[in-house]
Specification:
single chain; 255 residues; alpha/beta; 7-stranded parallel β-sheet; 8 helices; 17% strand; globular; binds nicotinamide-adenine-dinucleotide; binds ligand 0WE
């Protein structure tokens, strides 16, 4: 019997086999969980559907997190299929590419709203939509980055969005604790994914992370997956409102 045998949940944020969400999904499946997946749009569906099928996904549905109707439909479908669920994985973020290049003070109000809506507010709306189907003892995990708490060159408006996301984790944890629902974040070190591929000088960022991290290497999607598995499982039954770093110790080292 696996750690997650008999547990069911939904994973938001798989784009391809490099996605952090896919690393989490593989760990959950290996531990015995039953999974549902969402994808952003038709272009994403082409890559997500075969991956989801390879882990026997029960549901594969579209969900743009800016569209609350689609979000409601996902949890309605989960209710139909399973009745109740045990976990939700939120691994979604977006900002305008230009806002990750321009000086931070040039961030437009529209760019700010977009980044905060997709990357932070979506955790709140997702949690609200999930509540009717979340069991007592269920667990929500989101993905964050050190740029929430330190200024990281060029992370810009995404850093502000992650700060809002991390604060939202604490407020959701405070509210939902009495219902036995836990909410935590994994703060991953830099990983080469689709979302990282558009970033100028990302290779250089990876090199610095490798050099400065106490472990002297980068972390993998698998390692983020293993920590997420822990937070989503009953092993972490006493853990909520936490930001859990999986960055090879980078954030703890002065340099
Ligand atoms: P990724 O590109 O594989 O995943 C990002 C996902 O967000 C994609 O699946 C994309 O379809 C989805 N998305 C974007 N806008 C959306 C919308 N409006 N509605 C629904 N989905 C939308 O990249 P990733 O690196 O795996 O990112 C996953 C999470 O991990 C993000 O929250 C990211 O900020 C976080 N993170 C990434 C790193 C890194 O270095 N790659 C480090 C720390 C945290
Ligand atoms: O959260 C992220 C990436 C989020 C992201 C990436 C993109 C690129 C393509 C959000 N929106 C977009 N929009 C696009 O058009 N990370 C933690 C990875 C990341 O991004 C950085 C980093 C790191 C690490 C940007 C600058 C500096 C470091």
């Amino acid at each position: 019997m696996g750690l997650m045998t008999g547990k069911r949940g939904i994973i938001f944020g798989v784009a391809n086999d490099k996605s952090i969400a896919w690393g989490v999904a593989q760990q959950l499946r290996a531990a015995g969980a039953e999974l549902a997946f969402t994808y952003l749009n038709a272009a994403m569906e082409k890559r997500v559907r075969p991956l989801a099928e390879s882990v026997d996904a029960r549901l594969i549905l579209p969900c743009d997190v800016q569209n609350e109707d689609e979000m409601v439909a996902v949890f309605d479908a989960a209710k139909e299929t399973w009745g109740e669920i045990d976990f939700v994985v939120h691994a979604v973020a977006f900002a305008n590419r230009e806002d990750l290049k321009k000086p931070f003070s040039q961030t437009s109000c529209d760019g700010f709203r977009l980044a905060l809506d997709v990357s932070a507010y979506s955790l709140i709306s997702m949690t609200r939509c999930a509540l009717p189907v979340l069991k007592k003892g269920s667990s929500i995990v989101t993905m964050t980055y050190l740029g929430a708490v330190r200024s990281v060159p060029a992370y810009n408006v995404m850093g502000v969005a992650k700060a809002a996301l991390e604060a939202s984790v604490r407020y959701l944890a405070a509210e939902l604790g009495e219902q036995g629902i836990r909410v935590n974040a994994v703060s991953a070190g830099p990983i080469k994914t689709l979302a990282a591929s558009g970033i100028a000088n990302f290779k250089e960022k990876l090199r610095v992370a490798e050099e400065r991290a106490p472990l002297k290497r980068l972390v993998s999607q698998d390692e983020v997956g293993k920590s997420s598995l822990y937070l989503l499982s009953d092993l972490a039954s006493g853990v909520t409102g936490e930001i859990h770093y999986v960055d090879g110790g980078f954030n703890t080292a002065a340099g």
